[in-house]
Design goal:
CATH class: Alpha Beta
Structural class: alpha/beta
EC number: 4.2.-.-
CATH superfamily: YbaK/aminoacyl-tRNA synthetase-associated domain
GO molecular function, one term: aminoacyl-tRNA deacylase activity
Radius of gyration: 15 Å
CATH topology: YbaK protein
Number of domains: 1
Number of strands: 8
Pfam families: tRNA_edit
Number of helices: 5
InterPro entries: Prolyl-tRNA_editing_YbaK/EbsC, YbaK/aa-tRNA-synt-asso_dom_sf, YbaK/aa-tRNA-synth-assoc-dom
Distance between the termini: 51 Å
Keywords: Lyase, Protein biosynthesis
């Protein structure tokens, strides 16, 4: 019997190239179902506070910017605007996500996007040894050191949640 080949995502290939340690964690998804962060945390058997989501916004001066925040929190667009040097920031329209980042909803990683955008990670991650972020496709997370992610994508740890 042939072994099923696992396709690496841009995010995982980038980590491999930079020799950054990570652990892949797959979870079951239903094709058209929306999964909450609670569902993902339960499937991975990890605390909800360690599951982070990647959001993409548009700044009036900078264009696309990336926010990585705990999945149980809400991004504060005013704080994000201030730290990114914008007067106004709004969320990127879902229809533009794939063409802008190369990723789809539910599989957007701050690593391996089409272009490197200014990236801001919620400051709570600075105190963590690891967190879970999307590995670049739905149903796949990666456990990785947030400090490694910060350095790799030239991010800043900042207060960006409500």
């Amino acid at each position: 019997m042939k072994k099923k080949k696992v396709t690496k995502t841009n995010a995982l290939r980038t980590l491999d190239q930079k020799k950054i340690a990570y652990e892949e964690r797959a979870f079951a998804i239903e094709e058209f179902a929306h999964m909450s962060a609670i569902d993902v945390a339960n499937q991975l058997g990890t605390p909800l506070e360690l599951i982070y989501k990647t959001l993409v916004a548009i700044g009036n001066k900078t264009g696309p910017i990336v926010a990585v925040i705990p999945s149980n929190e809400t991004v504060d667009l005013k704080k994000l605007a201030k730290v990114s040097g914008n007067k106004k920031v709004e969320m990127l329209h879902l229809k533009d996500l794939e063409s802008t980042t190369g990723y789809i909803r539910g599989g957007c990683s701050p690593i391996g996007m089409k272009k490197q955008f200014p990236t801001y990670i919620e400051q709570a991650a600075d105190g963590l040894e690891y967190f879970y972020i999307s590995a670049g496709k739905r149903g796949l997370q990666m456990k990785v050191d947030p400090h490694e992610v910060k350095q790799l994508v030239h991010a800043e740890f900042v207060d960006i949640i409500e």
